[in-house]
Amino acid sequence: MAILKTDQEEIELQDRSRIKDVAEELGIPFGCRSGICGTCKIEVLEGEENLDDLNEQEQAMGDRDRTHRLACQCSILKGTVKIKSERYGSNVFFKR
Ligand code: FES
């Protein structure tokens, strides 16, 4: 079993499974679910080595790396991975 978690909660999932459904339960926002819109951008705070390699859609986005992923595209291989939404993590909505 692997674990996907945020600051608030954690959920177990199968090794080598896509993280998108569990990430959504953890509060990560989603849009297209196909690697195009960028709504699901996450920062990987711990355990980036437990995620699979960046796929074509993530590479095509241009600003993704091992610790900045698309939750709709990556899979967890094993172990624990801690994430946070890049959307909620920014101050963009609160700037005056
Ligand atoms: S939901 Fe659109 S890129 Fe992931």
Task: Summarize the topology.
Elements: E1 2-5, E2 10-13, E3 17-18, H1 20-25, E4 41-46, H2 56-61, E5 68-70, E6 75-76, E7 80-85
Parallel strand pairs: 1-7
Antiparallel strand pairs: 1-2, 3-6, 4-5, 4-7
Bound molecules: FE2/S2 (inorganic) cluster.
Please indicate the count of domains: 1
Question: At the third CATH level, what is the topology name?
Answer: Ubiquitin-like (UB roll)
Low-pLDDT regions: 90-96
Please list the strands of the largest sheet in the order they lie side by side.
2-1-7-4-5
Cα(first) to Cα(last) distance is 44 Å
Q: What ions, cofactors and ligands are bound?
A: FE2/S2 (inorganic) cluster
> What is the tally of beta strands?
7
Please compute the radius of gyration using only Cα atoms.
Answer: 13 Å
* CATH architecture annotation name: Roll
* SSE topology string: EEEHEHEEE
Structural class determined from secondary elements? alpha+beta
What does this structure look like?
The chain has 96 residues and is α+β, with helices and mostly antiparallel strands. It has a single domain, classed as Beta-grasp domain (Ubiquitin-like (UB roll), Roll), CATH 3.10.20. Helix content is 12%, strand content 28%. The protein is built from two helices and seven strands; from the N terminus they run E-E-E-H-E-H-E-E-E. The strands form two sheets. It has a five-stranded mixed sheet, with no helix packed on it. A two-stranded antiparallel sheet has the order 3-6. Strand 1 and strand 2 form a beta hairpin. The longest helix has 6 residues. The C terminus is likely disordered. The structure holds FE2/S2 (inorganic) cluster.
